[in-house]
Amino acid sequence: MAATVFGAPATTNDTKAPPPRNFGIVMYDSYDLLDIAGSVEPLYLLSSRQRLNLSLIAETLDPVYMRPAPSENYTTGSHFQLSVNPTHTFADPPEDIDVLFVPGGGGERFGNITAAVDFIRATYPKVKHLITVCTGAGVAAQAGVLDGKRATTNKWAWKEITPTGRNVQWTSPARWVVDGNIWTASGVVAGVDLILEFIETFYGRELAHTIQGATEFKRTFDPCDDPFAAWHNVTPSGDCRLTPSIYGK
Amino acid sequence: MAATVFGAPATTNDTKAPPPRNFGIVMYDSYDLLDIAGSVEPLYLLSSRQRLNLSLIAETLDPVYMRPAPSENYTTGSHFQLSVNPTHTFADPPEDIDVLFVPGGGGERFGNITAAVDFIRATYPKVKHLITVCTGAGVAAQAGVLDGKRATTNKWAWKEITPTGRNVQWTSPARWVVDGNIWTASGVVAGVDLILEFIETFYGRELAHTIQGATEFKRTFDPCDDPFAAWHNVTPSGDCRLTPSIYGK
Fold it and tell me: Which of A72-76, A192-196, B128-132, B162-166 is predicted with the least confidence, judged by mean pLDDT?
């Protein structure tokens, strides 16, 4: 057990580049809460040890909902809703975003995400890193910023999401993929593996290890360790083994 | 890999009891976002297949923050904040809560959680199930509702939390513990294992399996599979093997 949970590569991949400080999350109705929380939580723990700033950026400052209003009354009769408050708007975003974070969610399939897509297209050239989790890759793909890049997305939603980016080198199996400054995670919880790898890369292994222990997360260290590609019968494409070489492993 | 990720007990533990419908989350400033999201997300996916209702209950209807206001300006200079909107107050909660959910977070250590503790004490006798995740067990312990029960909490915070419930049978190692109608998870991500077990128990294995696949969560099926007890040097106590027998395994 210890070997798979606590195993780590033998070499460090800490970099000497100044670590990112300012994280901006692109919010839209029907975001996936766990996509967001899976990255916000480790970064929040990190923010007690490193200076980090978080912005939540949406079309307006109104609360953003897990589920778009028109479908709030499901066919099941459920009322299952949670809203988060943005801090900035797409029209007046924070300056100097280092890391633009795009969560997935139903919104990119049945909601209106035009404003979010436009914001990503306009903002990507100004940021140092782009992170997508789950079907957030489909939102980024619609903005065109994944064109020509290797990327991955939720294997459950693979057939629905990958056509949104016909010029993307979609990669599966892959728990996460890094291509240049674009980090894309597979479904939901794969985002926690991605963010711990991101933290290890830019803030060091010790902090990543401490945060893993605090959150009791059974981390995946190998980006090719993706059993959900087979689970969801995704046809293999691309090469997950290329991922670590991009950032110095 | 498949064996550990997808392995499941050979017998079903689905019950014939009517499944819980109404979930209420106890909110307080300095909640742990991932404790909440780790359960809300699987239940949200379930809510498209089953009628489920979610309430977020706090002292007031004002936004509730990840970090209490007085400490928002950390010593690191970080501004890392996220707020969620309650739907109900402790004074006017929803009727017929089936499942009361208590997340952890810094609040139970350095915030004012008196109102939350009082609400849990008054409400527990009316609900069908109590779930705590991470240091949420410390909040429930202060309400006295864990007295005489077996329970667990985050192994990282073990020495800080367990003294808040001197009459609790604290159990470690344990990924999660079930004692009667009280379900307690270890730290943060252990809550996802707990909620999938809860879903499997009350809504059936197929839905738990589907949700695991959608969230790409490498689930722990054995409540004794808790490497973080040793990671954090927690002295063994109680017996994690008692857990499954409580609800019919």
Answer: A72-76
* Burial of B3 per CB tally in 10 Å (0-12, 13-18, 19+): exposed
d(CA B134, CA B138): 8
Measured between CA atoms, how close is B182 to chain A, in angstroms? 21
**Domain CATH number, residue B171:** 3.40.50.880
Q: Is the dihedral of CA A173, A120, A194, A11 positive or negative?
A: positive
All residues of chain A having their beta carbon less than 8 Å from the beta carbon of residue B99 are none
Closest CA to A239 of A184, A187, A169, A190: A169
Residue A144 maps to a domain? yes
Which tokens sit at B209? 């399996």
Task: Note if the pTM is more than 0.90.
Answer: yes
Confirm whether B13 is domain-assigned.
no
Region for B93 from its dihedrals, namely left if φ exceeds 0, alpha if ψ lies in -120 to 50, beta otherwise: beta
Decide if B28 is inside a domain.
yes
Chain-chain contact of B74 with A47 (C-beta, under 8 angstroms): yes
Query: Model confidence over B91-137: pLDDT tens digits?
Result: 999 999 999 999 998 755 556 899 999 999 999 999 999 999 999 99
Mean pLDDT over the full length of chain B: 89
Report CB contact under 8 Å: B231, A215: no
In this model, does residue B76 exceed pLDDT 90? Answer: no
Cα of first residue to Cα of last residue in chain B, in angstroms, is 24
d(CA A46, nearest CA chain B) in Å = 10
Shortest distance between the Cα of A86 and any Cα of chain B, in A, equals 8
Range of the domain at A139: 22-71+81-232
Chain A residues in contact with B82 (beta carbon < 8 A): 40, 54, 56, 84
Measure the N-to-C terminal CA separation of chain A; round to a whole number of Å.
Answer: 24
A76 in a structural domain: no
Task: Specify the number of domains making up chain B.
Answer: 1
- Out of A40, A188, A216, closest to residue B188 by CB: A216
Strand pairing class (B64-65; A182-185): unpaired
Classified as helix, coil or strand, A132 is strand
Chain B residue nearest residue A175, CA to CA:
B216
